[in-house]
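Forwarding the complex inputs:
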Amino acid sequence: MSVVAINARNQFQGTIKEIILGPVVSEVDVETPFGIVTSVITTRSVKDLDLQVGTEVLALVKSTEVSIAKL
Amino acid sequence: MSVVAINARNQFQGTIKEIILGPVVSEVDVETPFGIVTSVITTRSVKDLDLQVGTEVLALVKSTEVSIAKL
Amino acid sequence: MSVVAINARNQFQGTIKEIILGPVVSEVDVETPFGIVTSVITTRSVKDLDLQVGTEVLALVKSTEVSIAKL
Amino acid sequence: MSVVAINARNQFQGTIKEIILGPVVSEVDVETPFGIVTSVITTRSVKDLDLQVGTEVLALVKSTEVSIAKL
Amino acid sequence: MSVVAINARNQFQGTIKEIILGPVVSEVDVETPFGIVTSVITTRSVKDLDLQVGTEVLALVKSTEVSIAKL
Amino acid sequence: MSVVAINARNQFQGTIKEIILGPVVSEVDVETPFGIVTSVITTRSVKDLDLQVGTEVLALVKSTEVSIAKL
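Prediction (whole assembly, six chains):
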């Protein structure tokens, strides 16, 4: 693991509610005060970061990855 | 514009608070219950969707684009 | 599901020809008049949107995700 | 430039119809049988690849970047 | 496979050290002189490009996908 | 800024060699042992993180964003 400083935008702090482990990638569902944020990361990362149900995490998104739709 | 049905995960509903227009891409800042969500989209999309400060929108993120960091 | 209006660029309308279901993500192959477009989405989305072979869908891509190569 | 072999999926062959040059990124609109495919790439790439209106190109998209919406 | 010319930035040349095959996506670990670069691509691509341990490849990244953190 | 722990894969440590500032996004070129890594981030992030020529940074890429091409 590396410890770094990142921009404070597009961060969703929460607690891991569920992990669906796959052979290559896993789904990590993060419960935030305002809803579930779903992430797909490598199963290798889940293990390297020792992510478990209940772990406090930040879900992070690059601004160029955010789309806008109109209601 | 096209009207479609999308998955309900990773949607951040809010109101546009600020738009920084560039010649090619623009920054659209959406005030949501999760905090400010910042999106970079084409200036063409800003015009096609007629986005303005105050417009109600959904900021959308694909699960494979969400990273996880540990606090 | 949410119903939203999106920008009309980078939309490929077609019919699902094949779905390869994985434990976490699935491959969805969309047959369009001009070729197959392949998408990898969460298996959760496949179920939430009730995607099946034969379902009419739009494959969508954000402009910032499109690369250009020269022939 | 590098010459490489890539997977044949999610390639949209066409001709550049318009380029909107920005200081950092540019919009490249490619006319393909699928319709217009819009790409945002660095202005540096536009110059390095010598892209111009009329240049034949491939627009490329990674499968994990393709979203699915229902009509 | 298609043979194309691409921008020379953000290319990491190396040899495949490990492939973890999944039903939909696979992890491809590329050993470069400066460290391992990890890629997740469709298992279909692994087969179409006939990727194996020892194959010489380029790992490629679009500039808009690169994040910056401060040490 | 937030200080977080992240997975150690796909990190390219280096020094900023050049910044091209745009009104919305900026190009940040990082000199690393792998060669120059080019990133496009919001100009807002450049300012929030106080990035300048000479600043030591990590360029980070999610594994799902890395493509593989054959030489």
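The radius of gyration of chain C is 13 Å.
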